[in-house]
Every structure is written in C-alpha cells, then in structure tokens.
Amino acid sequence: xxxxxxxxxxxxxxxxxxxxxxxxxxxxxxxxxxxxxxxxxxxxxxxxxxxxxxxxxxxxxxxxxxxxxxxxxxxxxxxxxxxxxxxxxxxxxxxxxxxxxxxxxxxxxxxxxxxxxxxxxxxxxxxxxxxxxxxxxxxxxxxxxxxxxxxxxxxxxxxxxxxxxxxxxxxxxxxxxxxxxxxxxxxxxxxxxxxxxxxxxxxxxxxxxxxxxxxxxxxxxxxxxxxxxxxxxxxxxxxxxxxxxxxx
Length: 248
Description:
Helix content is about 40%, strand content about 10%. By secondary structure, it is α+β, with helices and mostly antiparallel strands. The chain has a five-stranded antiparallel sheet with strand order 1-5-4-3-2, covered by helices on one side. Strand 3 (about 45-50) and strand 4 form a beta hairpin.
C-alpha cells in the first residue's frame, strides 16, 4: 500500500521547518493551487491546506504548519531542505531565485496524477483526478491502491485504465514510491509497467522520488527551451525544469 503520511502522528501544533532563503512561496502556492482537488486540498490567500492533515503558511526563514501530518512529509512537499546556493551561477536559475520542486503527500497519489496528466492540460488532469477522488475516495482522501486496482474507472481510455490498474497492483504488492528508496530500481520498476514512459517516470522521480536531477525530456516545452543541451544543468535538472515551466 502507499504510505499514509498521517500514520502514527498526532496533531502537531505550530511546527516550524527552516528554509534557506530565497524561497519562492508565491510560486509554490501557485503550483499547488493549480493542482488542488476539491475536498482534498486548497490554497486560500497565503495559506495551503490539506484536509485533515496540515495547514501550511510562510514564516520568517521557515514555513510553519499545524495538523497531524508527519513533518518529514511536509518538508518533502515544500522542499524545505533545498539550498538555492547549490544551484551555482547559471543564468537560468537567476531567472527564478528561490524556485523549489514541489513534492507529494504520497508517491502513490503523485504517480496516479502523473498518469492522468499524460498529454493533457493541468486543468484537464485535475478534473479527471477530482472525479477519481469523488468516485473511489470519500471526497476527502485519495483512493487507496487496492480500490483503484479493482474499482470502476468510468470515462478512462483503455490504455490509461490499464496503466492505473497496473500501478495500483504494483504498489499494493510492495512497490515503494516514498523516500527512502532505491531511486534507480524504482525508476526501472515503473518503466516496466504498461503506459509508463520516460516522461511519466521522470515526473514521478522529480516530485515523489525526490531526484534533483530528474528531467522529463519528453516534455515539448522543456525540449525546446533546453535546445538539446540540458546536460549543462546537471545535477539540478529538476530545478531547471521548474524554472523553465515557471518562466515560459
């Protein structure tokens, strides 16, 4: 089963997670807000809320949250461990100081949403994910792998349904998508699943597996913007991708 970020954690009052400045909180909220699912998460003003888990806001030199979520998971979602100084002096990173790679509340959820996002707009993928949560979840939690493996998936193209069920069975069978994990082995396992090509796997590697050098080369915009030379941004290509998406 996918890891539940609530497991074994009681309500935590006012936890502060230090961040290294600059930290582009506005971009983080914009990214998460555009992908928020009704009943599951939301952005209002300068605050992000994950239903039943966390309310997250910016504080001086930190982000702060209240709720029952595991602080390590919150740190991954908001990429608090990143040091912008490590990106070096490449002009690309100067275009978006404080950029972060948003993480995931669970690798399972992120992987499902990556499949739903194949070759569609962000809004289209969000709409399909919302239907999945409403139909197979309780409207406030993302459906579990065993539910997706055997449940009704109305309106899904056959190839996408096959990919989702294969992913669900793999995760239910022990495939881990949340750190700590063996990133190369997890990449290889995902690529073996039907419907999982390099774009999908690299997107999952960026956000769920937390590989700072993941690069979804199949993305047309990234391919054009990199002009065939993404190697110059190693080992921070995931951050380069975020800058290019942000400043397109």
